[in-house]
Write a structure and sequence with these properties.
single chain; Alpha/beta knot; Trp Operon Repressor, Chain A; five-stranded parallel beta sheet; binds S-adenosylmethionine; tRNA_m1G_MeTrfase_C_sf; tRNA processing; tRNA (guanine-N(1)-)-methyltransferase; transferase; S-adenosyl-L-methionine
Length: about 230
């Protein structure tokens, strides 16, 4: 999958792209991520990307011309949907992540300040995505959230594909409790069933714990889970 990111802070992405999972996916050719500095698409000597909002008010707005030029250039090489990360968008969840992971590629606009000129949304943006009902200062962190969530679902990116099936949100259930060595820590022992070697019992225990935990911590998800198994 090819992902193009448009940002005024390209440096933020360096460490992220060098982390184990993403870096491995890139080196194995499963992911191709290009970070574009919006300033490279300006035509004035000061490389200005923002301006005051019409009508007044606090904060600056990202100008339309550099964004339009960036999108048009990128689309020549990667003709895919343009995503604007915004708190006004559809809230990202695992179902949406799954849908996005099947795409050929994505073009992501990271907003800043008051956001981007509305005409870019009208003319170029295909999808608007929010990472939750809270406000951040820029779209860079949301785009990393989106990229990491999507990458994990691209076949071959995670070493152990079966772990995806067992993890939180995959089938509306939260993950079961996990333990590692030592067997006893501060007086608490690992549940016996997990060291029994009986895989059938272990998976029964895990599913029961996942159900219990979801019912208690996320009754909204548990409702969805029940509806899903009833409809099967
Ligand atoms: C301070 S916000 C602008 C918010 C905008 N004035 C509004 O009220 O909708 C600056 C940028 O951060 C990003 N952003 C902030 N919160 C976000 C969220 N919850 N999900 C996705 N992007 C977000 C967007 O790209 C946005 O353009």
């Amino acid at each position: 999958m090819r992902i193009d990111i448009i940002t005024i802070f390209p440096g933020i992405f360096s460490n992220f792209l060098e982390t184990s999972l993403i870096q491995r996916a890139i080196s194995e050719g499963l992911l191709n991520i290009r970070v574009h500095n919006l300033r490279d698409f300006t035509s004035d000597p000061h490389r200005v990307v923002d301006d005051y909002p019409y009508g007044g008010g606090a904060g600056m707005v990202l100008k339309p011309e550099p964004l339009a030029l960036a999108i048009e250039n990128i689309k020549n090489e990667n003709p895919v949907n343009v995503i604007y990360l915004t708190p006004q968008g559809r809230v990202l969840d695992q179902q949406y992540v799954k849908e996005l992971s099947k795409r050929e590629g994505l073009i992501i606009i990271c907003g800043r300040y008051r956001g981007i000129d509305e005409r870019i949304r009208e003319l170029y943006v295909d999808e608007e995505i929010s990472i939750g009902d809270y406000l951040l200062s820029g779209g860079e962190i949301p785009s990393m959230v989106l990229i990491e969530a999507v990458s994990r679902l691209i076949p071959g990116v995670l070493g152990n594909e079966s772990s995806i099936e067992e993890e939180t949100f995959t089938g509306y259930l939260l993950d079961s409790p996990q333990y590692t060595r030592p067997y006893e820590f501060k007086g608490i022992k690992v549940p016996e069933v997990l060291i029994s070697g009986d895989h059938k019992e272990i998976s029964k225990w895990r599913i029961n714990k996942a159900r219990e935990r979801t019912k208690k911590l996320r009754p909204d998800l548990y409702e969805k889970y029940l509806k899903k198994i009833i409809s099967k």
